[in-house]
Amino acid sequence: MSQITGAPTPSDTSVSQETTARFKRRFMVRLVAVFIGGMFLDGYILGIIGPVTGLMRSDLKLDELSLGMIAAGPLLGIFVGSPLAGWATDKFGRKPMFLVDMGLFLLASAAQFFVTSGDGAVIQLAVIRFFMGVAIGGEYSIGGPLLSEFSPPKLRGRLLGLTLIAWYIGFMVAFIVGTLMHDAGTPWRVVIGTSTVLALVLFVARFGLPESPSWLITKGRREEALAITRRYIASPEMRDSITEEIDLRMLQEAEAAKNKTKIKGASIGMLFSRQYWRTTLFTSGFWFCAVTPYFAIATFADDVLNQFGFGGGWAGGVGLSALAAAGVTTTVLLIDKLGRRILTVPGQWLCAGILLVIGVWANAPSILVLVLFLAFSFFNAGYTTMTQVYPAEVFPGELRGIGMGFSAAFSRIGAALGTFALPWAISNFGMGPSMVVAAVVALLGAILSQWLAPETKGRTLAEISENFSH
Fold first, then answer.
1. Nearest to 86 by CA among 344, 403, 437
2. Any domain includes 103
3. Rounded to the nearest 5 degrees, what angle is found at the Cα of 231, between the Cα atoms of 229 and 236?
4. CATH code of the domain containing 402
5. Do 274 and 240 belong to one domain?
6. Nearest CA-CA partner of 426 in 358, 324, 352
7. Which of the chain's termini has less CB crowding within 10 Å, N or C?
């Protein structure tokens, strides 16, 4: 077995010394903070548009198509940015890409202040918010692997799950900030440009972060990985995990040398190889099926809430997100105690049944529909938390970035269908059939997870990727 206490090379002595437990705790707090800050920004840029839509519509003379282009910009950007950044982070490293990614977001966010009011305003905003989406997509495929590769197995699920809580909080804070600034008569460019402040803070905070030991191991830089482990990682389980990854990599290299072959680098094609296709199918399919019904039910939400006088305004913009955040929070508190599967599979079967009842029971009492809707929001948000956990765990180190990036990109197809296709379906086929289709999507997710979802609680990344990918 490899040993953490092995002698470092001379080039590594600057980071090889042991540090205090306090230093290591402060590092983990910093790493978690800068990553969840990126997810907070994701929710923020999507939530900040709502309160100023009216101002933008009147100032820029926007029609529905133009508004749709501006709203779709980040989703398209995430679709492009996630796999692209995933490939780059597996090739060039987590550390440089983590900084470059937030730098891109900072520049794009600041550009919102300078959007003109002429004929090109729509194109300008759509392009700017597309690049903001590219950066947010990068957060999924760079930050997720980086955090998972530094997190102790007994806390990894909780720390990864915190990112989704940050998303909901970001959305809620954006709605509050946007509404207050709108009521105070603040120009809409200033309102949507407020994300620049946090982006600047996060960009500065990312300077000086170390490279991931797991990524270094995939590049054969074992002594550097050990040196960083000594300096930044306090968890005995994580130290053992690093040695396991080194041993596993050495076995792979020995086998490749014996067969006179080379270990392939990260590529989209590897995700569909005989070794990893189940991993890719599960992570991307599960994520797709989790978010598509969410956007479907969110479309239905205002119709239900309006019947009770709660639609729109503070109750619609903040209350519903708070309920979903409660579902995520519950999952985060339980994930490292109960495990992944029990918080993933049953909830999907339940949500499929809820959507089916809403779709089939056309004359259901309004209060029952409301209760079902609230239950769906809570349980769907709960298992959707796993979309931030599973992809960062089940892919091996050399594919962790591109695997998570591909899964995130594939999920954006579901988000787009829920956002744009469902309203069309409701107007052309009716609410009932549309909800039945949403139920079928949730059902497919339940079947897929029942078949493939692994239990990864308390296991090292090396153990998970070795067992799940073979």
1. 403
2. yes
3. 50
4. 1.20.1250.20
5. no
6. 358
7. N
Cα(446)–Cα(440) distance, integer angstroms = 10
Report CA-CA distances (Å) from 280 to 310, 312, 383, 386: 40, 38, 18, 15
Determine the pLDDT at residue 243: 85
d(CA 430, CA 322) in angstroms, rounded, equals 29
Q: Dihedral sign, CA of 456, 461, 463, 465?
A: positive
State residue 50's pLDDT score.
77
pLDDT number for residue 15: 46
Residue 102 domain flag: yes
- Helices 21-47 and 94-111, interaxial angle, to 10°? 40
Q: What is the CA radius of gyration of the chain?
A: 23
Residue with tokens 């980071």: 15
Rounded CA-CA distance 358/52 in Å is 32
Please give the structure tokens belonging to residue 296.
Answer: 């479907």
pLDDT, position 407? 95
For 385, which DSSP code? G
Global pTM value: 0.84
Q: Which amino acid is at 401?
A: G
How many domains does the chain fold into? 3
Separation in Å, CA 107 to CA 114, 118, 124, 170, 195: 12, 22, 14, 20, 11
Q: Helices 320-338 and 341-360 meet at what angle, rounded to 10? A: 140
Chain CA centroid to CA 231, Å: 28
Task: Let me know if 347 is exposed, middle or buried by CB neighbors in 10 A (0-12, 13-18, 19+).
Answer: buried
The span from the CA of 77 to the CA of 81, in Å, is 6
Contacts of residue 291, defined as CB under 8 A and 6 or more positions apart, other chains included, come to 384, 387, 411, 414, 415, 418
Query: Is 27 within the bounds of a domain?
Result: yes
Q: Using 50 as the pLDDT threshold, list the residues of the chain that sit under it.
A: 1-15, 307-309, 314-315, 317
Task: Check residue 298 and give its pLDDT.
Answer: 65
Give burial (CB, 10 Å; 0-12/13-18/19+) of 274.
exposed
Q: Which amino acid is at 406?
A: F
Within a domain: residue 7? no
Residue-number span of the structural domain to which 237 is assigned: 211-263
Phi, psi dihedrals of residue 288, rounded to the nearest 5°: -60, -50
165 and 285, same structural domain? no
- Residue 56's pLDDT is what? 81
Percent helix / strand / coil, the chain, rounded to 5: 80, 0, 20
Residues 142 and 226 in one domain: no
Provide the pLDDT for residue 319: 58
Q: Are 157 and 343 in contact (CB under 8 A)?
A: no
